[in-house]
Amino acid sequence: MRYVVYGAGAIGGVVGARLFRAKLPVVLIARGAHLEAIRRGGLVLRSPEGSESFAVPAAGAPSEVAFRGDDVVLLATKTQDAASALDALREAAGASVPVVCLQNGLESARLALRRFERVLGALLVLPTSHLEPGVVLSHSAPVPGIVDLGRFPRGTDALAEEVAGDLRRAGFASEVRAEIQPWQWAKLLTNLLNALHAACGPRADFGELPAALRAEGEACLRAAGIPFVEAAEFAARSRGVVRLVPIEGEARGGGSSWQSLARGTGTIEADYLNGEISLLGRLHGVATPLNTALQALAARLARERRLPASLSPAELRAALALPLEPHRARGAGPRA
After folding, report:
1. What whole-number distance in Å separates Cα of residue 235 and Cα of residue 50?
2. Domains of the chain, with CATH numbers?
3. pLDDT of the residue at 325
4. Buried b (16+ CB within 10 A) or exposed e, 54-67
5. CA-based nearest residue to 281, from 217, 189, 199
6. Quick one: which of 10, 211, 286, 328 could link to 281 by a disulfide (CB 3.0–4.6 Å)?
7. Residue 232's beta-bridge partner residues?
């Protein structure tokens, strides 16, 4: 089986590099300066264990790949780019190629299922970064992270078992789950904070906002009758598996949304994270003022090419039309 990694950024690059290191056939699809750097000097994987370079074959688009009958596509583009990517993939490979969606949220898997016969969804707990062309960073060691799989919308099959086995061979923790969506929804609830971290930095003091964002999300899921894994069980999956370890010479910034602002891409995935809660709220009559306001703010920061952590917590609250917390309204200012 050969893996075609469509989107060789933080997630796709780390997964592709480790699969390649495990002697599995891999082709990367990348673009721009990142593609040029990979073709020129290989894909560099930096981790707490050191730095390695891999001469992984790389293409600029699905049309440049000679697809084979044993190919599996690992879709790792951002969700906002997924529809156009999937259209290009279907044109080049046909609707029968299996697609594994390695993204936050659930929308990419829905988009894929409109176009492809077999789609696997994934639970990702995979701390990675991509800020420099040709280089990806993996921040957890010795296990790089979790990639649990299941047929989307539900079920298991031999393909899921084989892919999970290859991921374990490459060093990841990977289980096959007959019900993958409750785990994906649990991850989405944690991802509601991504836009906060992008706006102010992951170590800012957000007060009650994280709990309030999650409360809106849980209320929407319950109103929609959508099952999700509770926070304690979700946290237990990562405990003892994902361990953040410093990488020599690298300071870790933030997650995927933080990195979108850092790279100045002009887009951000908030429409499919906080926006998923906004959508459910509108469908089921649940108010979601915080998630909706944060969704709009994140989109504006991306559109204006603002740098990550460009707002203080007080400025964030003002942008969300929230009152200052009492201890700060008296002039104490935001805490470091």
Report:
1. 28
2. 1-179 (3.40.50.720), 181-322 (1.10.1040.10)
3. 54
4. bebebbeebeebeb
5. 217
6. 286
7. none
